[in-house]
Specification:
- The chain is mainly beta and 83 residues long.
- The chain has one domain.
- It is 10% helix and 66% strand.
- The protein contains one helix and six strands, in the order H-E-E-E-E-E-E.
- Strands 1-2-3-4-5-6 form a six-stranded antiparallel β-barrel.
- A hairpin with a 2-residue loop joins strand 2 and strand 3.
- The longest helix is centred in the first third of the chain and has 8 residues.
Amino acid sequence: MLVQRKTAISQPVEVREKRFGYFPKTFRWRGKFYSVDAVERCWNATYRAPYLCFRVRCREGVFDLYQNVRDNTWRLVPLGAQT
């Protein structure tokens, strides 16, 4: 259900660095760099492709980040973010 919402309002994002080779550490969205303070949740989902999903908290707000495992692309949904 959450992944379906992602496809409707998600936006491309570039994950620049990972913590422990897995968790998002920094990402670039709309030309601005964000540093992840905490990964609040992670889960797996499938919607046409398998996804690794992360709810992250940054100084600017909370975001859901989705990694398409097949093609290694990332999408972002802002959740209460100050954009």
